[in-house]
Protein backbone atom coordinates (compact mmCIF):
# COMPACT_ATOMS: atom_id res chain seq x y z
CA UNK A 1 0.00 0.00 0.00
CA UNK A 2 1.32 3.42 -0.92
CA UNK A 3 0.45 6.46 1.16
CA UNK A 4 0.27 9.98 -0.28
CA UNK A 5 0.09 13.47 1.13
CA UNK A 6 -2.93 14.60 -0.87
CA UNK A 7 -3.49 18.08 0.56
CA UNK A 8 -1.92 20.60 2.90
CA UNK A 9 -3.26 23.84 4.37
CA UNK A 10 -1.80 26.64 6.46
CA UNK A 11 -3.55 28.94 8.92
CA UNK A 12 -1.69 32.24 9.31
CA UNK A 13 -2.66 34.33 12.38
CA UNK A 14 -4.13 37.80 11.82
CA UNK A 15 -1.42 39.88 13.56
CA UNK A 16 2.01 40.61 12.11
CA UNK A 17 4.72 41.73 14.51
CA UNK A 18 7.98 43.14 13.17
CA UNK A 19 11.43 42.97 14.77
CA UNK A 20 11.33 46.74 15.36
CA UNK A 21 8.07 46.44 17.32
CA UNK A 22 9.44 43.61 19.48
CA UNK A 23 12.78 45.33 20.02
CA UNK A 24 11.03 48.60 21.02
CA UNK A 25 8.97 46.86 23.69
CA UNK A 26 11.96 44.81 24.90
CA UNK A 27 14.17 47.91 25.13
CA UNK A 28 11.44 49.88 26.98
CA UNK A 29 11.10 46.98 29.42
CA UNK A 30 14.87 46.87 29.78
CA UNK A 31 15.13 50.62 30.54
CA UNK A 32 12.38 50.33 33.16
CA UNK A 33 14.04 47.27 34.71
CA UNK A 34 17.44 49.00 34.89
CA UNK A 35 15.91 52.19 36.35
CA UNK A 36 13.95 50.24 38.95
CA UNK A 37 17.08 48.32 39.97
CA UNK A 38 19.61 51.14 39.53
CA UNK A 39 20.92 50.98 43.11
CA UNK A 40 21.45 47.20 43.05
CA UNK A 41 23.08 47.48 39.63
CA UNK A 42 25.41 50.24 40.92
CA UNK A 43 26.33 48.08 43.93
CA UNK A 44 27.17 45.22 41.55
CA UNK A 45 24.44 43.00 43.03
CA UNK A 46 22.51 42.84 39.77
CA UNK A 47 23.52 42.96 36.11
CA UNK A 48 22.00 45.67 33.94
CA UNK A 49 19.92 44.29 31.09
CA UNK A 50 21.30 45.05 27.63
CA UNK A 51 19.26 46.29 24.68
CA UNK A 52 18.14 43.99 21.88
CA UNK A 53 18.48 45.04 18.23
CA UNK A 54 16.80 44.37 14.90
CA UNK A 55 20.18 44.15 13.17
CA UNK A 56 21.29 41.34 15.54
CA UNK A 57 18.01 39.45 15.13
CA UNK A 58 18.14 39.52 11.33
CA UNK A 59 21.79 38.53 11.19
CA UNK A 60 21.67 35.82 13.87
CA UNK A 61 18.34 34.27 12.87
CA UNK A 62 17.08 35.54 9.51
CA UNK A 63 13.70 36.33 11.10
CA UNK A 64 12.17 39.60 9.81
CA UNK A 65 8.68 39.30 11.31
CA UNK A 66 6.32 36.74 12.80
CA UNK A 67 2.58 36.19 13.15
CA UNK A 68 0.83 36.07 16.51
CA UNK A 69 -2.68 35.25 17.63
CA UNK A 70 -2.45 38.26 19.94
CA UNK A 71 0.40 40.76 19.98
CA UNK A 72 -0.81 43.14 22.70
CA UNK A 73 1.15 41.52 25.54
CA UNK A 74 4.45 41.08 23.75
CA UNK A 75 4.41 44.72 22.64
CA UNK A 76 3.55 46.06 26.10
CA UNK A 77 6.69 46.59 28.23
CA UNK A 78 4.59 46.21 31.38
CA UNK A 79 3.28 42.79 30.32
CA UNK A 80 5.93 41.05 28.15
CA UNK A 81 3.90 37.85 27.79
CA UNK A 82 1.32 36.69 25.26
CA UNK A 83 -2.24 37.58 26.20
CA UNK A 84 -5.39 35.66 25.27
CA UNK A 85 -6.40 35.70 21.62
CA UNK A 86 -9.68 37.35 20.59
CA UNK A 87 -10.73 33.88 19.46
CA UNK A 88 -10.74 32.62 23.06
CA UNK A 89 -14.29 32.42 24.37
CA UNK A 90 -15.38 33.53 27.82
CA UNK A 91 -15.84 29.97 29.16
CA UNK A 92 -13.21 27.26 29.44
CA UNK A 93 -15.54 24.95 27.51
CA UNK A 94 -15.66 27.27 24.48
CA UNK A 95 -13.68 25.94 21.46
CA UNK A 96 -9.98 26.36 22.13
CA UNK A 97 -7.96 28.82 20.04
CA UNK A 98 -5.93 25.83 18.78
CA UNK A 99 -9.04 24.07 17.55
CA UNK A 100 -10.12 27.17 15.63
CA UNK A 101 -6.66 27.51 14.04
CA UNK A 102 -6.64 23.78 13.26
CA UNK A 103 -10.13 23.79 11.70
CA UNK A 104 -9.13 26.64 9.36
CA UNK A 105 -5.92 24.88 8.24
CA UNK A 106 -7.63 21.48 7.96
CA UNK A 107 -10.44 22.84 5.76
CA UNK A 108 -7.87 24.13 3.26
CA UNK A 109 -6.00 20.79 3.29
CA UNK A 110 -9.23 18.78 2.84
CA UNK A 111 -10.40 21.08 0.01
CA UNK A 112 -7.14 20.45 -1.86
CA UNK A 113 -7.37 16.70 -1.27
CA UNK A 114 -11.06 16.69 -2.26
CA UNK A 115 -12.09 14.84 0.91
CA UNK A 116 -14.88 15.61 3.35
CA UNK A 117 -14.57 15.43 7.16
CA UNK A 118 -16.74 12.31 7.37
CA UNK A 119 -14.17 10.42 5.24
CA UNK A 120 -11.39 11.11 7.78
CA UNK A 121 -11.17 8.35 10.40
CA UNK A 122 -7.93 9.36 12.13
CA UNK A 123 -7.01 12.83 13.38
CA UNK A 124 -3.66 13.45 15.05
CA UNK A 125 -2.91 16.76 16.74
CA UNK A 126 0.89 16.65 16.78
CA UNK A 127 2.43 19.84 18.19
CA UNK A 128 5.23 21.11 20.42
CA UNK A 129 2.91 22.83 22.79
CA UNK A 130 -0.70 22.28 23.80
CA UNK A 131 -3.17 24.82 25.05
CA UNK A 132 -4.28 22.23 27.65
CA UNK A 133 -3.79 18.53 28.35
CA UNK A 134 -7.34 17.28 29.07
CA UNK A 135 -9.71 16.95 27.30
CA UNK A 136 -7.66 16.16 24.23
CA UNK A 137 -7.36 19.02 21.72
CA UNK A 138 -7.48 16.42 18.89
CA UNK A 139 -10.84 15.13 20.08
CA UNK A 140 -12.13 18.70 20.28
CA UNK A 141 -11.00 19.32 16.68
CA UNK A 142 -12.68 16.03 15.71
CA UNK A 143 -15.94 17.39 17.13
CA UNK A 144 -15.49 20.85 15.58
CA UNK A 145 -14.67 19.45 12.11
CA UNK A 146 -16.98 16.43 12.19
CA UNK A 147 -14.33 13.79 11.44
CA UNK A 148 -15.02 10.12 12.31
CA UNK A 149 -13.06 7.27 13.90
CA UNK A 150 -10.58 8.37 16.52
CA UNK A 151 -8.29 11.28 17.34
CA UNK A 152 -5.38 11.81 19.70
CA UNK A 153 -2.70 14.29 20.72
CA UNK A 154 1.00 13.69 20.35
CA UNK A 155 4.11 15.84 20.70
CA UNK A 156 7.64 15.75 19.38
CA UNK A 157 8.89 19.35 19.49
CA UNK A 158 10.18 20.55 16.15
CA UNK A 159 9.58 17.14 14.57
CA UNK A 160 5.89 17.03 15.48
CA UNK A 161 4.69 17.11 11.86
CA UNK A 162 7.05 14.44 10.51
CA UNK A 163 6.59 12.15 13.53
CA UNK A 164 2.82 12.77 13.29
CA UNK A 165 2.68 11.82 9.60
CA UNK A 166 4.77 8.73 10.26
CA UNK A 167 2.47 7.67 13.10
CA UNK A 168 -0.56 8.24 10.86
CA UNK A 169 1.06 6.07 8.17
CA UNK A 170 1.60 3.25 10.68
CA UNK A 171 -2.10 3.34 11.60
CA UNK A 172 -3.12 3.38 7.95
CA UNK A 173 -0.77 0.55 6.98
CA UNK A 174 -1.95 -1.59 9.90
CA UNK A 175 -5.55 -1.16 8.75
CA UNK A 176 -6.60 0.79 11.85
CA UNK A 177 -7.35 3.88 9.79
CA UNK A 178 -8.08 4.72 6.17
CA UNK A 179 -7.70 8.49 5.74
CA UNK A 180 -5.80 10.66 8.19
CA UNK A 181 -5.55 14.31 9.06
CA UNK A 182 -2.34 15.36 10.82
CA UNK A 183 -2.42 18.82 12.34
CA UNK A 184 0.62 20.64 13.68
CA UNK A 185 -0.75 23.69 15.44
CA UNK A 186 2.01 25.78 16.94
CA UNK A 187 0.18 28.28 19.10
CA UNK A 188 3.57 28.66 20.68
CA UNK A 189 4.06 32.34 21.55
CA UNK A 190 2.30 31.88 24.95
CA UNK A 191 5.34 29.78 25.93
CA UNK A 192 7.80 32.58 25.15
CA UNK A 193 9.68 34.66 27.66
CA UNK A 194 9.60 38.14 26.10
CA UNK A 195 11.96 39.42 28.81
CA UNK A 196 14.73 37.10 27.55
CA UNK A 197 16.93 38.95 25.05
CA UNK A 198 18.35 35.71 23.61
CA UNK A 199 15.00 34.27 22.58
CA UNK A 200 12.31 36.99 22.55
CA UNK A 201 12.38 37.16 18.73
CA UNK A 202 12.51 33.49 17.76
CA UNK A 203 8.94 32.18 17.49
CA UNK A 204 5.65 32.89 15.75
CA UNK A 205 2.23 31.20 15.80
CA UNK A 206 0.93 29.17 12.83
CA UNK A 207 -0.88 25.93 12.04
CA UNK A 208 -0.37 23.44 9.21
CA UNK A 209 -2.58 20.47 8.31
CA UNK A 210 -1.87 17.46 6.09
CA UNK A 211 -4.29 14.92 4.59
CA UNK A 212 -2.85 11.42 4.13
CA UNK A 213 -4.59 8.87 1.92
CA UNK A 214 -3.99 5.56 0.18
CA UNK A 215 -2.68 6.39 -3.29
CA UNK A 216 -5.12 3.99 -4.94
CA UNK A 217 -8.07 5.86 -3.38
CA UNK A 218 -6.95 9.49 -3.63
CA UNK A 219 -8.67 11.74 -6.15
CA UNK A 220 -6.49 14.73 -5.31
CA UNK A 221 -5.03 16.59 -8.31
CA UNK A 222 -1.65 16.98 -6.57
CA UNK A 223 -0.27 14.05 -4.59
CA UNK A 224 3.09 13.33 -3.04
CA UNK A 225 3.86 9.65 -2.31
CA UNK A 226 5.80 9.13 0.92
CA UNK A 227 8.55 6.85 -0.34
CA UNK A 228 10.84 6.63 2.68
CA UNK A 229 10.86 7.79 6.28
CA UNK A 230 13.29 7.74 9.17
CA UNK A 231 13.00 9.11 12.69
CA UNK A 232 15.72 9.78 15.26
CA UNK A 233 15.90 11.07 18.85
CA UNK A 234 18.71 11.76 21.34
CA UNK A 235 18.10 13.53 24.64
CA UNK A 236 19.23 17.12 25.14
CA UNK A 237 18.14 19.75 27.69
CA UNK A 238 19.53 22.54 25.48
CA UNK A 239 16.00 23.34 24.33
CA UNK A 240 13.45 23.22 27.13
CA UNK A 241 10.15 24.47 28.53
CA UNK A 242 9.47 22.92 31.93
CA UNK A 243 5.74 23.57 32.27
CA UNK A 244 3.72 20.47 33.15
CA UNK A 245 2.31 18.72 36.21
CA UNK A 246 5.51 19.19 38.20
CA UNK A 247 4.73 22.90 38.31
CA UNK A 248 1.69 22.09 40.44
CA UNK A 249 3.87 20.19 42.92
CA UNK A 250 6.86 22.53 43.04
CA UNK A 251 5.48 25.99 42.26
CA UNK A 252 8.20 27.54 44.44
CA UNK A 253 10.97 25.76 42.50
CA UNK A 254 9.80 25.86 38.89
CA UNK A 255 9.62 29.57 38.26
CA UNK A 256 7.70 31.30 35.48
CA UNK A 257 10.82 31.68 33.33
CA UNK A 258 11.64 27.94 33.68
CA UNK A 259 8.21 27.06 32.33
CA UNK A 260 8.74 29.11 29.21
CA UNK A 261 10.97 28.37 26.21
CA UNK A 262 14.71 28.52 26.80
CA UNK A 263 17.61 27.31 24.71
CA UNK A 264 21.37 27.33 24.46
CA UNK A 265 21.17 28.35 20.82
CA UNK A 266 24.88 28.13 20.03
CA UNK A 267 25.16 24.62 21.49
CA UNK A 268 22.03 23.51 19.64
CA UNK A 269 23.51 24.83 16.44
CA UNK A 270 26.79 22.97 17.00
CA UNK A 271 25.36 19.68 18.26
CA UNK A 272 22.29 19.29 16.10
CA UNK A 273 23.59 20.19 12.64
CA UNK A 274 26.15 17.34 12.37
CA UNK A 275 23.41 14.91 13.46
CA UNK A 276 21.03 16.28 10.81
CA UNK A 277 23.58 16.28 7.99
CA UNK A 278 24.76 12.76 8.90
CA UNK A 279 21.24 11.43 9.07
CA UNK A 280 20.16 12.96 5.75
CA UNK A 281 23.25 11.61 3.99
CA UNK A 282 22.75 8.14 5.50
CA UNK A 283 19.05 8.20 4.67
CA UNK A 284 19.73 9.07 1.03
CA UNK A 285 22.51 6.46 0.77
CA UNK A 286 20.53 3.64 2.31
CA UNK A 287 17.68 4.32 -0.11
CA UNK A 288 20.06 4.50 -3.10
CA UNK A 289 19.58 8.20 -3.72
CA UNK A 290 22.01 11.08 -3.88
CA UNK A 291 21.22 14.63 -2.86
CA UNK A 292 21.26 15.55 -6.57
CA UNK A 293 18.14 13.37 -7.00
CA UNK A 294 16.23 15.73 -4.70
CA UNK A 295 14.50 18.53 -6.61
CA UNK A 296 13.96 20.39 -3.32
CA UNK A 297 14.50 20.13 0.44
CA UNK A 298 11.82 21.37 2.79
CA UNK A 299 13.87 21.89 5.95
CA UNK A 300 12.96 22.78 9.51
CA UNK A 301 12.66 26.54 9.88
CA UNK A 302 14.51 27.58 13.06
CA UNK A 303 17.34 29.73 11.85
CA UNK A 304 18.42 30.78 8.35
CA UNK A 305 22.10 30.19 9.13
CA UNK A 306 21.33 26.59 10.09
CA UNK A 307 19.55 26.01 6.79
CA UNK A 308 22.22 27.67 4.65
CA UNK A 309 24.91 25.66 6.47
CA UNK A 310 23.02 22.37 5.99
CA UNK A 311 22.36 23.06 2.29
CA UNK A 312 26.00 23.95 1.63
CA UNK A 313 27.22 20.81 3.42
CA UNK A 314 24.74 18.54 1.66
CA UNK A 315 24.75 19.97 -1.87
CA UNK A 316 28.00 21.95 -2.06
CA UNK A 317 25.99 24.91 -3.35
CA UNK A 318 24.44 27.98 -1.75
CA UNK A 319 20.89 27.89 -0.42
CA UNK A 320 18.24 29.46 -2.66
CA UNK A 321 14.44 29.50 -2.59
CA UNK A 322 14.29 26.81 -5.27
CA UNK A 323 16.50 24.17 -3.60
CA UNK A 324 15.60 24.82 0.04
CA UNK A 325 12.93 27.48 0.54
CA UNK A 326 13.01 29.70 3.63
CA UNK A 327 9.73 30.79 5.20
CA UNK A 328 11.11 31.75 8.62
CA UNK A 329 11.86 35.30 7.44
CA UNK A 330 8.08 35.81 7.34
CA UNK A 331 6.80 33.26 9.92
CA UNK A 332 9.83 33.02 12.30
CA UNK A 333 10.36 29.64 13.95
CA UNK A 334 7.03 27.82 13.99
CA UNK A 335 8.50 24.72 15.69
CA UNK A 336 7.03 21.51 14.24
CA UNK A 337 5.03 23.32 11.56
CA UNK A 338 7.96 25.00 9.73
CA UNK A 339 9.03 22.33 7.24
CA UNK A 340 5.42 21.63 6.22
CA UNK A 341 4.59 25.33 5.84
CA UNK A 342 7.60 25.46 3.47
CA UNK A 343 6.20 22.39 1.68
CA UNK A 344 2.71 23.93 1.43
CA UNK A 345 4.06 27.11 -0.14
CA UNK A 346 6.67 25.54 -2.43
CA UNK A 347 5.47 22.39 -4.20
CA UNK A 348 3.12 23.49 -6.97
CA UNK A 349 5.92 23.55 -9.58
CA UNK A 350 6.81 19.86 -9.06
CA UNK A 351 6.45 17.58 -12.10
CA UNK A 352 5.43 13.93 -11.97
CA UNK A 353 8.29 11.73 -10.77
CA UNK A 354 10.29 14.55 -9.14
CA UNK A 355 11.58 13.85 -5.64
CA UNK A 356 11.96 16.03 -2.58
CA UNK A 357 13.16 15.68 0.99
CA UNK A 358 11.24 16.81 4.07
CA UNK A 359 13.48 17.14 7.15
CA UNK A 360 12.54 18.43 10.59
CA UNK A 361 15.03 18.88 13.42
CA UNK A 362 15.09 20.42 16.87
CA UNK A 363 13.89 20.05 20.44
CA UNK A 364 14.51 16.84 22.44
CA UNK A 365 16.67 16.44 20.05
CA UNK A 366 14.52 14.96 17.31
CA UNK A 367 14.98 14.53 13.55
CA UNK A 368 12.42 13.31 11.01
CA UNK A 369 13.27 12.64 7.33
CA UNK A 370 10.97 11.72 4.46
CA UNK A 371 11.57 11.39 0.73
CA UNK A 372 8.45 12.21 -1.25
CA UNK A 373 7.66 11.85 -4.95
CA UNK A 374 5.15 13.88 -6.95
CA UNK A 375 2.66 11.37 -8.33
N1 LIG B 1 20.11 41.62 20.53
C1 LIG B 1 21.41 41.98 20.50
N2 LIG B 1 22.40 41.18 20.90
C2 LIG B 1 22.07 39.97 21.35
C3 LIG B 1 20.73 39.51 21.42
C4 LIG B 1 19.73 40.41 20.99
N3 LIG B 1 18.44 40.08 21.01
N4 LIG B 1 20.72 38.27 21.91
C5 LIG B 1 21.98 37.91 22.14
N5 LIG B 1 22.82 38.94 21.82
C6 LIG B 1 24.27 38.99 21.93
C7 LIG B 1 24.79 37.98 22.93
O1 LIG B 1 24.76 38.50 24.23
C8 LIG B 1 26.19 37.73 22.44
O2 LIG B 1 27.03 38.75 22.91
P1 LIG B 1 28.54 38.42 23.32
O3 LIG B 1 29.20 37.93 22.05
O4 LIG B 1 29.04 39.72 23.81
O5 LIG B 1 28.46 37.34 24.36
C9 LIG B 1 26.08 37.90 20.93
O6 LIG B 1 24.87 38.63 20.70
C10 LIG B 1 26.04 36.59 20.21
O7 LIG B 1 25.07 35.75 20.84
P2 LIG B 1 24.89 34.26 20.44
O8 LIG B 1 26.20 33.58 20.34
O9 LIG B 1 23.85 33.65 21.35
O10 LIG B 1 24.24 34.46 19.00
P3 LIG B 1 24.10 33.44 17.83
O11 LIG B 1 24.77 34.00 16.66
O12 LIG B 1 24.40 32.03 18.24
O13 LIG B 1 22.51 33.50 17.56
C11 LIG B 1 20.55 32.18 17.99
C12 LIG B 1 21.60 33.12 18.57
C13 LIG B 1 19.71 32.97 17.00
C14 LIG B 1 19.69 31.69 19.11
C15 LIG B 1 21.22 31.02 17.25
O14 LIG B 1 22.22 30.43 18.06
C16 LIG B 1 20.26 29.94 16.84
O15 LIG B 1 19.19 30.16 16.32
N6 LIG B 1 20.66 28.69 17.00
C17 LIG B 1 19.85 27.59 16.55
C18 LIG B 1 18.92 27.25 17.60
C19 LIG B 1 17.86 26.32 17.10
O16 LIG B 1 17.72 25.99 15.97
N7 LIG B 1 17.11 25.92 18.01
C20 LIG B 1 16.07 25.06 17.70
C21 LIG B 1 14.95 25.85 18.05
S1 LIG B 1 13.84 24.95 18.92
C22 LIG B 1 12.62 24.68 17.83
O17 LIG B 1 12.78 24.89 16.65
C23 LIG B 1 11.29 24.28 18.33
C24 LIG B 1 11.26 24.21 19.82
C25 LIG B 1 9.95 23.67 20.22
C26 LIG B 1 9.85 23.55 21.71
C27 LIG B 1 9.11 24.72 22.25
C28 LIG B 1 8.56 24.42 23.61
C29 LIG B 1 7.77 25.57 24.11
What report would you give on this structure?
Strand 4, helix 5 and strand 5 (150-154) form a beta-alpha-beta unit. By secondary structure, the chain is an alpha+beta fold. Helices cover 33% and strands 21% of the residues. It has helices at residues 19-36, 38-42, 54-61, 97-113, 137-145, 160-173, 246-249, 256-259, 265-286, 304-315, 328-331, 338-345; strands at residues 3-11, 15-18, 65-68, 122-126, 150-154, 180-186, 206-214, 224-233, 239-240, 262-263, 294-299, 355-362, 366-374. The strands form three sheets. Strands 5-4-6-7-1-8-13-12-11 form a nine-stranded mixed beta sheet, with helices on both faces. It has a domain at 224-374: Thiolase/Chalcone synthase (Peroxisomal Thiolase, Chain A, domain 1, 3-Layer(aba) Sandwich), CATH 3.40.47.10. It is globular and about 70 Å long. Helix 9 packs parallel to helix 10 (304-315). Bound molecules: octanoyl-coenzyme A (CO8). The site of octanoyl-coenzyme A has 29 residues, from helix 3 and helix 9.
Amino acid sequence: TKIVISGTGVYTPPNTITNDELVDSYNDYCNKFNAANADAIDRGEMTAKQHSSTAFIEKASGVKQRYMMNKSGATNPDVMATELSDLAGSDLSDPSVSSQMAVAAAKKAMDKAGVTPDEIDLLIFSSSIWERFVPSIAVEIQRDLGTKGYAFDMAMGCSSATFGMSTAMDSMLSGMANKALVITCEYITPAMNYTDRDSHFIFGDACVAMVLEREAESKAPVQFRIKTRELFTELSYNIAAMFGSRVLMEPHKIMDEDQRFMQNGRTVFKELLPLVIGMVQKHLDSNNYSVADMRRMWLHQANVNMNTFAVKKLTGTDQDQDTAPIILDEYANTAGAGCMIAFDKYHQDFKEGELGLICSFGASYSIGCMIVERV
